[in-house]
Amino acid sequence: MTFREKTALIVCLMLCSLSGAVFLVSSLASSDDPSDHTLAYAILAVTAVGLVFGVSIILVLDRILRNRLSRISSPLQTIRDSTGFSQRVNLAGKDEFSLLASDIDAALESLEKAHARLAESEGRHRATLQLIPDFLFLMKVDGSISAISDGESGTGGRSAGSFACAEGNHAGQHGNGNGQAPPLLKTLSEAIVGQGKDYASQALTQRQMQSFEVELSSNGSRSCWETRMVSCGEGQVLAMARDITDRRRGEEAVARAKDALEMLVQERTAELDRVNEVLKKEISLRLQEEEVLRKSFRKVEALLENTIEAMSLIVERKDPYTAGHQRRVAKLACAIGREMGLGADRIQAIRVAAMLHDLGKIFVPAEILNKPGRLTDGELALIKTHPSTDHEILRTIDFSCPVADIVAQHHERLDGSGYPAGLGGEEILPEAKILGVADVVEAMSSSRPYRPALGMDEALREIVKNKGILCDPDVVGACLRLLTEKKFSFVE
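and the corresponding structure tokens:
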């Protein structure tokens, strides 16, 4: 039964009582006894007073309850908004006290859940603070500072310390049981208060993190602390101090090592510069020496060339019919060597050997060299000695290439039928094979005392016929390409 239903029941009972009293008064009033009349008036007065008093009490209680319920309604609305409690409290409906009790129970249950979540969150934050190896302080604008975490055991190891640090007079107490703050914690907090006032003001006004470093000295040792401040509520900042002593020492060690390395590099650079100067001078001297050697070598080459020309001229004077023969053979042999892809040194060896390949003929009597008819076996044997004579003369000269051997082998043939040693195949130097083919081609295409010139076509047919038998196939092929495809000419 609701409050209003109970109130209505009470009013009905009062009205029934009043009706009974009126009926009783009416009965007494019809009596002739004056005392009955007096009693009736008394009952009527008492009944009226009781009725007025009851109604007044009911109205007063109703107003009081409504005021209290209105005061409870606002906090319930706040609880409902903050905790997510969505049930609406309708004080104007029926059974207001039951609804109010249900809402209060639901609100209390939500508050218990919120308290559990808050305790869980606090536990996580507490564990986080215990894991942070930093000092955390709460600093106010009045200079007081409280330690939130001591950097070792966090908030779980000791209770937070409070330090009332004033300008020039730093005193502090820490809740560690003896009323004294740990020396490092106290010293650090005093240093932060002393050096961090301006940074704290900037953090509060600018709402941005401020950072600075604090240096502490104790018993000859120095430590460095990186301190950061952020605004944390009205008129206070949260400061975190991290020990960066090892990092600073590492940076200083790196800086010292860098300076030492730079100094070492400078020393080594100076030493290298000195060595470089010495090397430059030595290179300059070597270049000068090489230039002198090149000039000397050119002179020697020129002298050798003149000597070769002179020796070739001696042969030509001894045998006028072969005038220019050695130069023409040298030209064709060098062209064949280039066609076969030989290097410059080997081509030079072929040229020198070709210019001197008939040098031994100066020891053959002129009448045999210029004899118009067929030579006897003895005369032919004498002429065949000129390669050996060439070798005996040229081997005494220190050429840079085997000129003497090339000259000695230019009449050797692949099948071993040549002279003077009867060499064959790979026993013959490649340069000698080239010189032999060039000598045959030039000799057959030129006039001799014992016959007229046979012509270039006959000379080519001769080397083609003996290709692979007497003459090297590669040399013959190169010679044919020069004389048929590339139009080689003995004429300068």
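(Above: one complete record from the training split.) Confidence is low (pLDDT under 50) at residues 85-94, 153-179.
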